[in-house]
Design a protein that fits this description.
- By secondary structure, the protein is α/β, with parallel strands linked by helices.
- The protein is about 45% helix and about 15% strand.
- The chain has 7 helices and 7 strands.
- The protein has a 7-stranded parallel β-sheet, sandwiched between helices.
- Strand 2, helix 2 and strand 3 form a beta-alpha-beta unit.
- The structure holds nicotinamide-adenine-dinucleotide (NAD).
- The site of nicotinamide-adenine-dinucleotide has 28 residues, from helix 1.
């Protein structure tokens, strides 16, 4: 049990990699709060965790809304007494939009993927400071490290912001005993909002640039999150962990 007795909040935990993270954290002993827009999918993840003997709650969260963050952090403390781990995972893809200079797409990507993480840290860190420390894992992407010719640059910009906000928060809150790291998934199962990156031909082309020669599994990202969230990573902060089959190494 690598996070026994800890309380974790996972944004976007109702689906995809966030659901895998919530389940893995719970199976390793954490009490888990899932925040997402998807209420019925969130309830299903809670049920799956409870059926395995774990503890979980769902609360509706729109990561763009400051009031929602204030409420979900308060609810986490009401449910489970504290907040030890925050995973800022909720996000949308930039691969469905046709016009790479579409301004509403830029605004949506920045508000969900970047402002959502900023607000999560704003309220999560305040609660962790009161409790004497914690660990934050922010989900960026390979797209936060390099540019790509098939997605709206708002996705790269928002994920780049996540990468560097992580380092800012690590620099600013080390003395508060709060560690902040980022995880950068590569080619994974498509997001709900994926467009071109869900296209088999595009995926095959991306795969040709992955040294391990396959796409990743949600659980493989969840294990990286678990490591950084756990005390096994007690001297790691401001770091970025690429879970990409070697994509960024080439
Ligand atoms: N799938 C990939 O290929 C891939 C690769 C690199 C990084 N990522 C990143 O990993 C994270 C998880 O992606 P995924 O593949 O599980 O995608 P997904 O679409 O399966 O899950 C994203 C979750 O975020 C939630 N969400 C979206 N907007 C929200 C909002 N405003 N407020 C609250 N919740 C919201 C969704 O409802 C969903 O449950 C994202 O940040 C994504 O950018 C994904």
């Amino acid at each position: 049990m690598r996070v026994a007795g800890k309380v974790a909040l996972v944004s976007g935990g109702a689906h995809g990699m966030g659901a895998a993270m919530a389940k893995l954290l719970a199976s390793e002993g954490a009490k888990v709060v899932i925040g997402d827009l998807l209420e019925s999918e969130g309830a299903d993840v809670v049920k799956a965790i409870e059926e395995k003997g774990g503890a979980a709650r769902f609360h509706r969260l729109d990561v763009r809304a400051e009031d929602d963050w204030r409420a979900i952090v308060a609810a986490t403390i009401a449910d489970f007494g504290r907040l030890d781990i925050l995973v800022n995972n909720a996000g949308i893809s930039g691969s469905a939009v046709e016009d790479f200079y579409d301004t509403p797409a830029w605004e949506a990507l920045m508000s969900i993927n970047a402002t959502g993480v900023f607000l999560g840290m704003k309220y999560g860190i305040a609660a962790m400071k009161r409790a004497g420390g914690g660990a934050i894992v922010n989900i960026s992407s390979i797209s936060g490290v390099v540019g790509q010719d098939f997605i709206h640059m708002g996705y790269n910009a928002s994920k780049g912001a996540v990468r560097l906000m992580t380092k800012s928060a690590a620099a600013q809150h080390g003395r508060d005993n709060i560690r902040v790291n980022s995880v950068h998934p590569g080619l994974m199962p498509p997001m709900r909002t994926s467009g071109r990156t869900a296209d088999p031909q595009r995926r095959a082309e991306m795969l040709s640039r992955v040294p391990l020669g396959r796409s990743g599994r949600a659980e493989e990202v969840a294990h990286a999150v678990l490591f950084l969230a756990s005390d096994d990573a007690s001297y790691i902060t401001g770091a970025e962990l690429h879970v990409d089959g070697g994509y960024l190494a080439t």
